[in-house]
Specification:
321 residues, alpha/beta, UDP-N-acetylmuramoyl-L-alanine:D-glutamate ligase, 14 strands, globular, binds adenosine-5'-diphosphate, binds beta-D-fructofuranose
Length: 321
């Protein structure tokens, strides 16, 4: 939908990233190979990727004033990510993650702290003008309030004949996350959550989550190097293998990249099959580079390929007897 934005609701934090030659041994003192800060948090990362794909997007969350506030808001601005509706809280500690990247295999180990920043409330959400958006994506956190936001969005959509889609990512290993799956048109289920629930594969995850989703919902399960599988009534199961790189450099935010790329593609009107394919290409390309700075350079060819794939599929359909 031209002129409408993709809204991502959730966390922004600062990631202090230390790249180590190998995963550190406990109680040792050593130097890292590289160190930098980057803006992090699932919804904030989703927006970074969407902006690299040239989608108009907005981050909606709480932001604490003080030390890191300027850094984070400048960075949002540099990426053309709107933050006009964020709720600011002075005198709180900024959520912070210490991230260890193991340069041997690109694994990321995250130690997160969020001491006292208040979460968004449904009352904050009700102040948004929902007619501005083509897509609302919710990070699976702050469960009770996010559930209310999703329910409010659904009733707004019915009342105003709205066209936006609603998605959610259930990722963290906490059982209460599941109730969010009941209110979304598109449900992303992360590997960490699936493993925590004892699901054995992507198909198993989709089958187990399906009974609680609303009729007609799409369900997508991403599973690291195994790739991703989606399901919809229309397209049934669709699978894409991971886009394995010569060297896996940085897997921080791979799942956030995948979700953002799939949302981008669905929002452009591509099929679930093509969108899951696109998500895997972009997330794969991302793990082959450090951070997100060069994501546009490595993703442009997949944007072009997405268009060609979809055209070829339509032509094939039109020519089949
Ligand atoms: P999370 O960051 O939530 O743990 P995953 O590890 O499940 O996310 O990865 C999400 C998607 O990113 C996968 O479906 C895959 O397409 C891609 N991906 C993750 N790790 C790799 C990897 N090592 N090589 C290529 N693609 C990867
Ligand atoms: C990656 C990420 C990091 C952040 C952490 C919060 O998915 O969003 O940027 O530090 O998760 O849980």
């Amino acid at each position: 939908m031209k002129g409408k934005k993709i809204l991502c609701v959730g966390l922004v934090c600062v990631d202090v990233v230390q790249v180590c030659p190998a995963f550190p041994l406990e109680d040792t003192d050593q130097r890292c190979i590289e160190q930098h800060w980057q803006r992090g948090g699932n919804a904030s990362n989703n927006c970074t990727v969407l902006s690299r794909l040239d989608a108009e997007c907005e981050f909606f969350g709480t932001i604490s004033g003080g030390l890191f506030c300027g850094y984070v808001t400048n960075d949002f601005e540099t990426h053309n990510i709107l933050v006009d509706n964020c709720v600011y809280h002075d005198g709180c500690d900024f959520p912070l993650s210490i991230v260890i990247i193991n340069s041997e295999n690109g694994s990321r180990t995250i130690i997160h702290s969020n001491k006292n920043l208040p979460e968004l409330t449904v009352e904050d959400f009700k102040k948004l003008d929902l007619s501005c958006y083509s897509w609302l994506h919710f990070e699976g956190r702050n469960i009770q309030q996010v559930k209310l936001m999703m329910e409010y969005a659904i009733s707004w959509r019915i009342q105003h004949k709205g066209q936006f889609k609603i998605s959610v990512e259930i990722e963290k290993a906490r059982s209460e996350q599941q109730i969010l799956a009941t209110a979304a048109d598109v449900v992303f289920v992360g590997k960490d959550y699936a493993c925590f629930k004892g699901y054995t594969s992507m198909k198993d995850t989709i089958k187990k989550v399906k009974p609680i989703t609303k009729p007609g919902a799409m369900i997508i399960s991403a599973w690291g190097e195994s790739g991703a599988t989606g399901f919809s009534d229309e397209e049934d199961f669709v699978f894409t293998p991971a886009n394995i790189q010569q060297k896996t450099v940085d897997t921080l935010g791979a799942g956030d990249t995948f979700c953002a790329a799939v949302i981008f593609s669905l929002n452009e009107g591509y099929s679930l099959k093509d969108s899951v394919w696109f998500g895997c290409q972009i997330a794969g390309a991302k793990v082959g580079i450090p951070g997100y700075t060069f994501l546009k350079q490595v993703s442009d060819k997949y944007v072009k390929e997405l268009l060609l794939r979809s055209k070829a599929e339509k032509d094939e359909k039109n020519h089949s007897p």
